[in-house]
Amino acid sequence: MFVRYIIRVPQLSRGLATHAGPVHAVPAALHLKSGQSFHGKSFGAPRSIFGETVFSTSITSYTESMTDPSYRGQILVFTSPLIGNYGVPSNTAPFDSQDVGVILESQNIQAAAIIVGDVAEKFSHYKAVESLAAWCKRHNIPGVTGVDTRAITTLLRDQGTTLGRVAVGLDAALPAPDAAEYWDPALENLVDQVSTKTPYELNPQGSIKIAVLDFGAKANILRSLVRRDAAVTVFPWNYDFNAVRDQYDGLFLTNGPGDPAHCMDAALQLRRTLQEWDRPIFGICMGHQIIGMAAGLDAYRMMFGNRGHNQPVLALASAGSIKAGRVYVTSQNHQYALKLQDPFPQGWEPFFINCNDSSVEGIKSTAESGKKVWGVQFHPESAGGPLDTIEVRLGKSLSECVF
Known about the structure:
Blueprint: H1 2-15, E1 18-19, E2 27-32, E3 37-44, E4 49-56, H2 62-67, E5 74-78, E6 82-83, E7 88-89, E8 113-115, E9 118-119, E10 122-123, E11 128-130, H3 132-138, E12 142-145, H4 149-159, E13 162-168, H5 190-194, E14 200-202, E15 208-214, H6 219-226, E16 230-236, E17 250-253, H7 264-276, E18 281-284, H8 286-295, E19 299-315, E20 327-338, E21 348-354, E22 360-365, E23 373-376
Parallel strand pairs: 4-5, 5-8, 6-9, 8-12, 15-16, 15-17, 17-18, 18-23
Antiparallel strand pairs: 1-10, 2-3, 2-13, 3-12, 4-13, 7-11, 14-16, 19-20, 19-21, 21-22, 22-23
Helix pairs in contact: 7-8
């Protein structure tokens, strides 16, 4: 009897999952500018959009990926076959020394649309308040399910990131758009769209003052700083930091979407900061690219970029807990990277390199330069993703950090 009861417990647990409601059989399609079309059914908002079609190899943390500002303007294809099984949590948190107002990476869904093989019709998690479909509909984001995401991913790997069109309802029966109709978000300054418009403070009573240039910051970057007792001032991406730099103990440059060439003004201002200021500077993702451009490196567009929570990087130098020669698993979301050149600009050296494609994953100032500047292409603070590199410059306390 007891054995039969134990065997039945998993079945009971599954029965308690919250039913999200069936996905209505509204036709939907994904058209690629390269000529391929994939037909399925719609979930989320019943509207059609254009965007840049990319894929993520993340197995979990779909809510964090979708709210990451780095996905602005992109049609996000999840390679994991089932998405939505643990629903969506409430996205409200306090503004205090432990949090920054949101649970996820921003207040809204940032991706233009979502493509999944199978969207969950039931979800089960003690923090979940709504289904993935309901969340997308509330934020006016279309989704397509019932398509072969393996085939889409193979295409994107072979031909590179491709412009796309999500067509829903009556639009799905229409022919694919002409090539000239596709919208390319890379032509726009996406950073300017997602960056804060006015400066604001977090944890003003913190023990050390950090300035943040916001290129499209994930909330967990700011959360990681305030939890280490930093008083954080967040500035717009093109703010003249040199006018206020002596008020701060360090400068942080965040992640962000799109082409770093649109942010050349920030790179030129940072070049002056690097020449005249001797306090620590650290950058993540777009911030890393801005540091590299300020140092004299060029940025280029990758074929399909790196998006996922399983990217291996090789440390070429030691710093803090990072040991040269070790491979670390990292979380990434980027289409552009810095060019690896020989020789490197004077005063700089490569910090990490990608084990899959040999792209530059980090740079740092040399010991001889007398500077304390680091940049990494990946997200050391995870959310979501592994914690292998969380102490690369974000130690357990700020006394262990670059700052």
